[in-house]
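User: Good morning. I'm curious how adenosine-5'-triphosphate would be positioned relative to this chain. Could you predict the structure with it bound?
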Amino acid sequence: MIELNDVGYSYGGDALLTDVSLNLSPGSFHFLTGPSGAGKTTLLKLCYLELQATRGEVVAFGRPARQLSRDGVARMRRRVGIVHQDCRFLDHLPLVENVALPLSVSGQPDHADSTEMRELLAWVGLKHRATALPPELSGGERQRAALARALIMSPDVILADEPTGNLDWEMSLRLLTLLVELNRMGKAVLIATHDLALIRQAKTQLAARVLRIRDRTLQVAGAEL
Ligand SMILES: Nc1ncnc2c1ncn2[C@@H]1O[C@H](COP(=O)(O)OP(=O)(O)OP(=O)(O)O)[C@@H](O)[C@H]1O
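Assistant: Good morning! Here's the predicted structure, ligand included:
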């Protein structure tokens, strides 16, 4: 659904990423690891078309990214749910309104009171926190709210940047379980993480590919896993 073909990226100076090829096909599950500053967030942004490759080609749902108009990019993004590292909530809006934001941004009626919304919040274990403001939420609640917001448009692809960064092990497992369930529904999942224990745990449940950014390229991770 999203393909990177020999992609390179530079923020202006030396190349940060070179010759990166990746195929997020339906039902695939990828982990992305690598040292801090290696370019994991940058790679996710390339997949989300938040950045444009400086070399090579990104193909999103069969269309080369360079050929997409602004509307085309917006349509593509509706099919991709992204969980940002810093969650990015509007602090003055209750959780349920934050989760519904992608709907209102795309011009759809507000579904804050809908059955689907209630089911989604129940699924991530946040039904009882629907009216809480983001600053009142715990780290784990924020991460699960960010996941709910990423899912509200029923995306085909889920990109998550350090989704368990601030979570204890029990909460990390809970989030992983949700991502595994989504993957079993056929969604492509890509998780950037430093958490090797999480990767090992996931590999007991599914056939995940573990990739690592090393020396500016994307490699299959080695024996440390
Ligand atoms: N907008 C930007 N302009 C210039 N340089 C940037 C920009 N964003 C990121 N960088 C640099 O690009 C490099 C890769 O950043 P990126 O956030 O992709 O790494 P990362 O692997 O996700 O790191 P971490 O694990 O610490 O989150 C870093 O050196 C960073 O300082």
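The pocket of adenosine-5'-triphosphate is lined by residues 11, 16, 34, 36-42 (CB under 6 Å). The chain has seven helices and ten strands.
Let me know if you'd like a different ligand tried.
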